[in-house]
Design goal:
With 134 residues, the chain is mainly alpha-helical. It has two domains: 1-86, no CATH class; 88-134, no CATH class. Helix content is 49%, strand content 9%. It has five helices and two strands; from the N terminus they run ααααββα. The chain has helices at 10-18, 20-31, 46-72, 79-87, 117-125; strands at residues 91-96, 107-112. The radius of gyration is 22 Å and the shape is elongated.
Length: 134
């Protein structure tokens, strides 16, 4: 190993080298189009690309915060598994015609997909039930 940080101790150099994998993992995550990917990029002007870049970094940061909170709560999931579990939580809104013979708006009824034990735990951790329609 080589470094130009001559004021660092040997321990600091080794810790910096070993923590490099976090940055590399973040770049791998940004290349994954199913998580917070940079690609596909549907913009052609420099201005729109400059706006797209901070959005990707912000999404990566938020995903990392979610991952950290899930780990603090005792769930040892990869970021990809965490996103997959959160994506499995879906709300379906069924619209029904007004009662026969009466004019009015469509009636709506919300239902949710059957949660897995992990997605149920994630809903508790992130307080997603607070957002359900009442």
């Amino acid at each position: 190993m080589f470094t130009d940080n001559h004021q660092w101790t040997t321990e600091e150099i080794i810790l910096a080298y070993r923590s490099q994998h976090h940055v590399e993992a973040a770049f791998r995550t940004m290349k994954n189009p199913y998580l917070v990917g940079w690609q596909p990029l549907y913009h052609w002007t420099d201005q729109k690309i400059r706006v797209h870049a901070p959005y990707c970094v912000m999404a990566l940061t938020l995903a990392g915060l979610l991952h950290r909170e899930a780990r603090r709560a005792g769930l040892e999931l990869s970021l990809e598994a965490l996103c997959r579990e959160l994506s499995s939580i879906c709300e379906v809104i069924n619209l029904y015609a007004p009662i026969a013979g009466k004019a009015g708006r469509l009636r709506a009824a919300s239902t949710y997909t059957e949660p897995t034990p992990i997605s149920s735990r994630l809903a508790e951790i992130f307080r997603l039930n607070d957002w359900k329609a009442r």
